Amino acid sequence: MRNSYKAIENRRERILNILSTVPSISIQELSKRLNVSEMTVRRDCNKLSQMGRLKQKLGIVSFVSPETASNSNSRERIKRSLGEEAVKSISDNEIVFINSSTTALYSIPPLLKKNVSIVTNNGNAAKFLSEHNVASLILSGGNVNDRDIMSGDIAQRSFSSMRSDWSIIGCAGISVEHGITTPVIEEANINRTIIKNSRHLIVVADYSKFGNFSNFTIGQVDDIDVLITDPFVSAKTLASFRKKGINIIQVPQI
């Protein structure tokens, strides 16, 4: 009988737990500790290596921590990969809301190559415009802060008067218990409107956002259709989101 997805995820989580306690370990030793074949361990390690969770060399594997990966690849590359992955769900002729998140902002360059309409309160989106763009970019207007984020009544009315096919949002924290949260009160109501007026919601959140919560709740996990994150979020954590029927995508570390 073939292993269930849950059993495979649990075994890979055990591999990572073992690796977090030792500098390195052989495939053979992992096989003994897990009581499975070396072929099974090698297959698991190959997958974890592709995701950027461990390194392999001559049958020896070693752990890659989020901090190590962030130092070598930078948090910005992680955020960029999440934003770019979100675009794959979106088709031509759709309307897309983007919130003020820096991670969500990375979805705009590839979105501009599609025949879509983008609505955002992030003024930084304008820097991606060029003569080669296909998409329509609409800035919400409103009070502009030192991060070029727009808020206030004008921004609120812009999103309230429209409906989108998709929204791509980032957040300060996300958990099943506390939902999707942000620390900025001026942006909280806009984010709530973005979620309310969207047919489908994509949340992009790196490992550091899980289990955290901030001052203002902008939505519940039940609002999420697609959750995109990196390989460093544990299988146990993601299982609680899967129970809610959320489609979870873990983007391999580049």
TrEMBL record:
This is Transcriptional regulator. SUPFAM superfamilies: NagB/RpiA/CoA transferase-like, Winged helix' DNA-binding domain. Residues 8-63 form the HTH deoR-type domain. The keyword Ribosomal protein does not apply. Signal peptide: none annotated. The lineage of its organism: Bacteria, Bacillati, Bacillota, Bacilli, Lactobacillales. One of its GO terms (molecular function) is DNA-binding transcription factor activity. Keywords: Transcription, Transcription regulation. Coiled coil: none annotated. The keyword Ribonucleoprotein does not apply. PROSITE patterns: HTH_DEOR_2. It holds the Pfam family HTH_DeoR. InterPro entries: Carb_Metab_HTH_regulators, DeoR-like_C, DeoR_HTH, NagB/RpiA_transferase-like, WH-like_DNA-bd_sf, WH_DNA-bd_sf.
